[in-house]
Amino acid sequence: MKLSEAVRLLRVKRPPAPYGARTLARCYSIDDVARVARSRLPLGARAYLDTGAEGEYTLHRNRAALDMIEFLPEQPRRVTSVDTSTTVLGQQIPLPIVLSPIGAPRFFHHEGERAVARAAGHAGIPYGVSTLATVPVEEIAAQTNSPLWFQLYVWGDRRDARRAVERARQSGFSALLLSVDTNVRASREREKHTGLDLPAPELPLLTFFEGALHPTWVWHFFASEEISFPNIGPPDHRSRNKIKEMFDGSMSWQDLGWIREVWDRPILLKGVMRPDEAVRAAEAGLDGVIVSNHGGRQLDHVPATIDVLPGIVDAVEGRLEVLVDSGFRRGSDIAAALALGAKAVLVGRAHLYGLAAAGEAGVRHCIDILATELRRTMALCGVRSVKELDRNLLRWRDGGARSAASAGPGAERMAVSFEH
Ligand SMILES: Cc1cc2nc3c(=O)[nH]c(=O)nc-3n(C[C@H](O)[C@H](O)[C@H](O)COP(=O)(O)O)c2cc1C
Fold it and tell me: Which one is catalytic: 110, 214, 294, 365?
């Protein structure tokens, strides 16, 4: 037998293309990408990416709750193609996925928001840009034609917040996310153990020494522009100091007044965990809420978002759009959230791992993984479009009693919705 025939029989793979592409090509899940990301980041950046608040109970609860969901597929059912497109805030998007706002993503890859915005543009999905972005909003807007949403932390001096919102508006951002779960900064102990003083990054010696194990990251870190926060003031050290003043606990419903003077596009509350708060947002005329516990990074011991989602969806009765994040790592997680009534799912770490592993190509790869898994889950469930995803397709391993109890005020209807 000729060697070429033997190779064909054995299905030996061709020699790899460029290094980064080869590594990504062997990443079949977000967890695979996460492993590459962790190997590329120095200690401090790794801790910033993965850490949860205090005992990390909520961090782990997010995953544990998603893992409790079981699909009940409708089979046999003819599914020749699957349509994942949907409409969020009046805009049609090809996937029910949004990239979450992240502070200081240039810590994970020197291109930071530029790379993420291009990847979002390639997939045609919205990208939420943080108040603590490390690239000016004008420059981010130049990288993508996809919808951009601006996430706002409202801090003491409202003039800075007003200026930031005006800049986002002029740059064409189409929605404003008001984060309501961060009025004081959480304690993230794994970050503290590395000595990292975030969000005002001042790298301690320990991080520098450990950095020797990650020369590519270190080289790029020093060879590119210094990390600063150019959307909350001039791009200098003063903007870093401002961050410490930001978390002053002074945001209230009254702030909506001045925000509406400078922002006439959709507004969503990010960090909603209670049905009554979502109802209040609807009554205040807001366009949406994002059910979020900040990926387990703020108040510890709050429920998993997937557990409170159905109660919130029921309470608002379609008066505003409900989105969700925290812990989503699989297309099947996204399918479950949509079946429970979410319009779309925001993914934080599930795109940051890609950013850290390979910049724009890594973020694209993560979006592809989630999209492929979502399509496959839908097809295997016998579902042809996101509209067909509903609660009949799911059950909870414990029958749903925990879900109803954990939804909080306004959740009376939930018990009924979960009687399968
Ligand atoms: C490193 C990191 C930084 C974050 N920075 C912000 C931020 O600046 N503003 C914000 O509203 N949320 C921020 N978040 C929370 C995300 O927007 C999102 O709610 C969370 O990551 C979702 O959980 P997941 O990472 O499990 O997907 C951050 C999350 C991470 C992991």
Answer: 294
Q: Is 231's C-beta closer than 6 angstroms to any atom of ligand 1?
A: no
SS3 state of residue 228: coil
Going along the chain from its start, the domains and CATH numbers come out as 31-417 (3.20.20.70)
Strands, E, within 84-238: which ranges? Answer: 86-88, 91-93, 97-99, 127-129, 148-152, 175-179
How many CB atoms within 10 Å of residue 5? 9
- How close is the Cα of 130 to the center of ligand 1, in Å? 9
Other beta carbons within 10 Å of 290: 31
Q: Are 172 and 198 in contact (CB under 8 A)?
A: no
Question: At a CB cut-off of 8 Å and minimum separation 6, what does 222 contact?
Answer: none
- Are 141 and 134 contacting, i.e. CB atoms less than 8 angstroms apart? no
Q: Is the CB of 233 under 6 A from ligand 1?
A: no
Nearest atom, ligand 1, residue 151 CA:
11
The pTM (predicted TM-score) of the whole model is: 0.90
Q: How many CA atoms lie within 13 A of 43 on its CB side?
A: 19
Q: CA 417, CA 420: separation in Å to the nearest integer?
A: 8
The reply to whether 294 belongs to the active site is yes
Q: What is the pLDDT along the chain (420 residues), one digit of tens a residue?
A: 555 566 566 665 544 444 566 789 999 999 999 999 999 999 889 999 999 999 999 999 999 999 999 999 988 788 889 999 999 999 999 999 999 999 999 999 999 999 999 999 999 999 999 999 999 999 999 999 999 999 999 877 788 899 999 999 999 999 999 999 988 888 899 888 887 766 555 666 776 678 788 888 888 888 888 888 899 865 555 556 666 666 677 788 999 999 999 999 999 999 999 999 999 999 999 999 999 999 999 999 999 999 999 999 999 999 999 999 999 999 999 999 999 999 999 999 999 999 999 999 999 999 999 999 999 999 999 999 999 999 999 999 987 644 444 445 444 433 323 222
Q: What's the chain's length in residues?
A: 420
Q: Which of 7, 68, 119, 70 is nearest to 381 (CA)?
A: 70
Nearest to 296 by CA among 50, 130, 38, 100: 50
Other Cβ atoms less than 10 A from the Cβ of 125: the count is 25
Torsion of CA 313, 315, 319, 325, to 10 degrees: -30
